[in-house]
Amino acid sequence: MSNNLPKVAWIGLGIMGSPMSENLIKAGYSVTGYTLEQDKIDRLVAAGGTGASSIADAVADADVVITMVPASPQVEAIAYGPDGILENAKRGALLVDMSSITPQTSVDLAKKAAEKGIRVLDAPVSGGEAGAVEAVLSIMVGGEQADFDAAKPLLEALGKTIVLCGPHGSGQTVKAANQLIVAVNIQACAEAVVFLEKSGVDLTAALDVLNGGLAGSTVLTRKKDNFLKRDFAPGFRIDLHHKDMGIVTDAARNVGAALPVGAVVAQLVASLRAQGDGGLDHSALLRSVERLSGSQV
């Protein structure tokens, strides 16, 4: 594929990374990918990408390196060290980390990358698996305006709402706020579902009318079927939301912001995980409300 688009290396081909990297290929980008599972690399190759045998191999020739991994420790593992991105990417490359990690990790990464002549943006996303597949993600970005401008055409192949929120780490801060709102919203919906069902109301009808009023939300629209069918196949795992609630409660504490309801929901997420539901979708907060209300789940 010969074109003037930047060459992309993609590290991390999970629930989000796979469809996102495929959307870049569809948009005409040349994408070389690396991840821990060979079948995910095979999927990228089948979609028209190129597989790499290591991080070093993936990033060697890349103009833009995109990372999408679960949490701060994984970002540090792929970025640092002799086999990592910073040692093997070329000077002037742009590293766009789309993982959801602590704001401080993003700030530190940008600082260390700058010593190697590598520019960094933190660009976490919201919209879940469906948003990734449909390329309608919300992308909150932290970093320099010039780097944001350079990355914007590429980000437009992945999402719909793309906003520079401030300096390095700002994208992660906004993402943490996003996860706070989503978790509290799911919890409120879950409580309503159990209340409605125990009251003998037609749940489908109730959720339809609620979603048409002030109680309506993207969360309810996206998760309504999960609630109705008790289908908790993960679009976004409780394990990850647990990690994110840790990020937001810790970051809020550092800046002196009180999150009373967020703290309660963080504990409910932690409890769900302790009960073995960490691999389920975050809509499974419903299971926690059911248990508290005396149902066997």
TrEMBL record:
GO molecular function: 2-hydroxy-3-oxopropionate reductase activity
Signal peptide start-end: none
Domain 3-hydroxyisobutyrate dehydrogenase-like NAD-binding, chain residue ranges per copy: 169-287
Superkingdom per UniProt: Bacteria
Family matches, as Pfam families: NAD_binding_11, NAD_binding_2
Keyword Oxidoreductase (UniProt): yes
6-phosphogluconate dehydrogenase NADP-binding domain ranges (all copies): 7-166
Enzyme class name: oxidoreductase
Keywords: NAD, Oxidoreductase
Gene3D superfamilies: N-(1-d-carboxylethyl)-l-norvaline Dehydrogenase, domain 2, NAD(P)-binding Rossmann-like Domain
EC number, UniProt record: 1.1.1.60
Protein name, as recorded: 2-hydroxy-3-oxopropionate reductase
